[in-house]
Write a structure and sequence with these properties.
10 helices, alpha+beta, 5-stranded mixed β-sheet
Length: 442
């Protein structure tokens, strides 16, 4: 039952807040309208109909056996002035129930039914009630012994117009209160929406607008201040990490450069070649550490042709004698081109090292873009899918250090994808190797 109710609930906080405000008001309106109808309007209509039926009964008794034209005219004038009843007498006529057809709205129908009950109890004579179309008058024809008594009266004699005024006031005040609630709720929701947008921008690696500042209710301001402090701590931590590793890399390059110069002067022996190879590996490791420390860097987003970027990366792999097949569609989106190109180069380079053929496919849906890079290499065991994204983690001999790498390729790629608000995952390729899937939001 709860599932079916949730299906019809609004998805946004704004919609649900309005529902919380509007639903009680609507229920109160319905309850008040029902109580008012049952306790006031219907009883007032009953009493007014009872009074009119009593007046008709008195007039009918007065002229049933003793009709005098002059006397009738005098009574008709008094009744018209005092009771708002227009009466006339049709001498010698008889009542034909099929001669008059009642045409009325729902309100008039209820009034007619109420008047009929009162007429049955008070007059106790044959009668018909006629409600002319588009007229606010009710005509009652009563059969007397010597003819027909015609009584016409305005509808206001049978119901209270104050009922409609009350309902209109109630509806109008409710609409005003709803309008005030909508404006107030919008002002309260706006800071939450701005906080959500700022958090989303931070998750995608974008800069939080300088105009963002705590506002709204106390709890919302508290959450906004906590978000700003978190943003500052993350930014400061990234800067410190970059500065630290950049300093370490710079300090390491200086002795490495001196060692290379000294080795160049010692000749070409096997030991010298081994030392040169070790220094080359150390330089490559230092560069990898610095790339990992830089992460997304300070590069700004720009709208680029993602298809063209993939084609450039594929051309680089082909120059390394790799067989690359592209299955892409034209897609342009806001990205950090240098960072994303470095990420894709790492993934394609990884596939080139362990496979002979590479398949790259790009597809887009309504809200995101999917990039899949597959190879026909030895692959990765499923229980290692999460481990390979940890910094400095190296696999066994199927993908070991002999093939190159210091365990930072996939962590760097993951950092870059996360900075774009995307996700990266591993799986088994249909070609037997490893499949890397990247999902980027549009």
């Amino acid at each position: 039952m709860s599932f079916s109710i949730k299906k019809f609930l609004p998805n946004t906080l704004y919609g649900r807040s309005l529902l919380i405000v509007a639903l009680p008001i609507l229920l109160i309106q319905i309850l008040m309208a029902y109580v008012f109808y049952d306790r006031h309007w219907s009883k007032m209509t009953d009493r007014l109909s009872f009074a009119v039926a009593g007046e008709i009964a008195i007039i009918a008794e007065r002229f049933n056996d003793n009709y005098n034209a002059d006397d009738f005219e005098a009574v008709a004038r008094n009744v018209s002035q005092s009771l708002e009843l227009l009466i006339s007498y049709e001498e010698g006529a008889t009542l034909d129930h099929k001669a008059v057809e009642a045409r009325s709205s729902f309100r008039s129908s209820y009034v007619v039914r109420t008047l009929q009950r009162s007429m049955d109890n008070e007059v106790r004579r044959p009668y018909i009630i006629n409600v002319p179309e588009k007229k606010k008058w009710v005509e009652v024809v009563v059969a007397l012994d010597g003819g027909l008594l015609h009584i016409s009266m305005p509808e206001r004699r049978l119901f209270s117009s104050s009922s409609y005024i009350f309902l209109l006031w109630m509806l109008g005040i409710s609409l005003i209160l709803m309008g005030v609630a909508v404006l107030f709720m919008r002002n309260q929701i706006r800071p939450i929406r701005r906080l959500a947008v700022a958090a989303e921008r931070l998750g995608k690696g974008q800069e939080v607008p300088l105009s963002f500042k705590p506002e709204g209710a106390r709890e919302v301001r508290q959450a906004a201040r906590a978000f700003i402090n978190m943003h500052d701590r993350i930014k400061r931590q990234m800067q410190q990490r970059t500065a630290m590793l950049a300093g370490v890399s710079h300090d390491l390059r200086t002795p490495l450069t001196r060692m290379k110069l000294q080795l160049e002067m010692l000749g070409d022996g096997q030991d010298i070649k081994d030392l040169k190879s070790d220094i080359h590996d150390m330089e490559r490791m230092v560069d990898a550490y610095l790339d990992f420390a830089r992460g997304e860097g300070q590069e700004q987003r720009e709208v680029i042709d993602l298809t063209g970027l993939l084609e450039r990366c594929a051309d680089k792999a082909r120059r390394q004698n790799a067989q690359v097949e592209l299955d892409v569609v034209p897609v342009s989106m806001s990205l950090k081109p240098l960072a994303l190109e470095r990420c894709i180069d790492n993934l394609i380079g990884n596939a080139v090292q362990y496979g002979k053929n590479i398949w790259i496919s790009l597809h887009y849906a309504e809200d995101d873009v999917s990039l899949v890079i597959e190879d026909d290499g030895p692959g990765v065991a499923e229980d290692k899918y999460d481990e390979v994204f940890k910094p400095f983690f190296r696999l066994d001999s199927s993908r070991n250090v002999a093939k190159g790498g210091v365990g930072l390729g996939l962590p760097i790629a993951q950092d870059i994808i996360h900075s774009h608000g995307g996700e990266i995952s591993l799986g088994k390729s249909t070609h037997g190797g490893l499949s890397v899937t990247i999902v980027l939001p549009l």
